[in-house]
Amino acid sequence: MVPTPTQRIGSQYLSWTKRRAPVRYNLARSGVPRLPLERLELSLADLLHNENAEDGWPPLMERIAARQDVTAAHVVTTHGCSMANHLAMAAVVEAGDDVVMESPVYEPLVRVAEYLGARVVPFLRHAENRWHIDPDEVRRALTPKTRLVVASNLHNPTGSFDNQDTMADIARFAESAGARVLVDEVYLEFFHARGARTAVRQSPRVLATSSMTKAFGLDGLRLGWVLAEPELAERMRRLNDLFSVNTAHPSERIAARALDRADVLLAESRTFLTRNIESVDAFVRDHDVLSWAKPRAGTVGFIQVADRDVDALVDRLHADFEVAIVPGRFFGAPDHFRISFGLDSDSMREALSRISRALRARV
């Protein structure tokens, strides 16, 4: 189905989630709880600094680069991961190009490609393969007009992790077609302790995006970045002059403080996220109508529902049970919903109890 001009503008998913009334148990919000800024021991100067680092604040860029084993010349700071994805695509894709993109997929990625005038060609992740990418699926989807392959790692919405060999194979197939690869790595920090680093290190054809939002609970900073080979990174900096010029300097300083404490903050998150993933797994196994591929880490999972109207379930949970989840139609899988693990464990158990009651009422 070809989207109408109106559908090409903006994201139906983000419009939906922004306009939903707040509820007590928000399992739609896909990051860790918001980080109290007092944890970062900030000074007044950090918060009120009124200077601009025109192409990014070097101390922050150096921290991002060191954490991912690249150089600061690879780093382009942006207003959040959404702008990072937009900037990365805009630097590579032109009207009439093909963009090969994973499915299920985070819907705003599709909308950016369509906004730029590209045709989206899907490659499938399969539930029976625990949602891992089969590089041959990517190879088969490539066309003579492909300029970009887009994936996420950890995958949004399933939380699946693809290893370095898989990403290297994708980069090799893309290069043979004259294309680049964009990997949204906004959840990859959850695998940092296991040695996971950016796919940019696999090939100069790979770009990656991330931010301080999902893993660090600093969504209010709107601080993201693109990693790319230095020549392309410089192209993005110049293109960004047309979009947002530079990022807010207080956000850069706060992000740098958080990265200095990254390992401690992530270790704390892993403790309760692991506990919550186990709770969700028990919840799924307790319901014959539910199934999923249990994620190894991260903040989201994707649950299939048999013999139910998922949209009706989502609406009933929101209206009558004060629980928010995301309908799978926004990821191209209407018989699923995405659930977040980012609540404290007591709240998580209560939210799951409420979803159980709704399921047993056969919504």
What does this 3D model show about the protein?
Helix 4 (58-68) packs parallel to helix 10 and helix 5 (80-92) packs parallel to helix 6 (107-115). The chain has two domains: 38-260, Type I PLP-dependent aspartate aminotransferase-like (Major domain) (Aspartate Aminotransferase, domain 2, 3-Layer(aba) Sandwich), CATH 3.40.640.10; 263-360, Aspartate Aminotransferase, domain 1. The radius of gyration is 20 Å and the shape is globular. The chain contains 13 helices and 13 strands. The chain has 363 residues and is an alpha/beta fold. A seven-stranded mixed beta sheet has the order 2-8-7-6-5-3-4, sandwiched between helices. The mean pLDDT is 94. Strand 9 and strand 10 (300-305) form a beta hairpin.
Domains (count) = 2
Low-confidence stretches: none
Biggest sheet features = 7 strands, mixed
CATH superfamily of the largest domain: Type I PLP-dependent aspartate aminotransferase-like (Major domain)
Relative strand content: 15-25%
User: Any guess at the CATH architecture of the largest domain?
Assistant: 3-Layer(aba) Sandwich
Proportion of residues in helical segments: 25-40%
Structural class category: alpha/beta
Counted beta strands: 13
Discrete helix count:
13
Taking the alpha carbons of the first and last residues, their distance comes to 29 Å
Q: Judging from the principal axes of the Cα atoms, what is the shape?
A: globular
Name the strands of the widest sheet in spatial order.
2-8-7-6-5-3-4
- The CATH top-level class label of the largest domain: Alpha Beta
Instruction: State the CATH topology of the largest domain.
Output: Aspartate Aminotransferase, domain 2
Mean pLDDT: 94
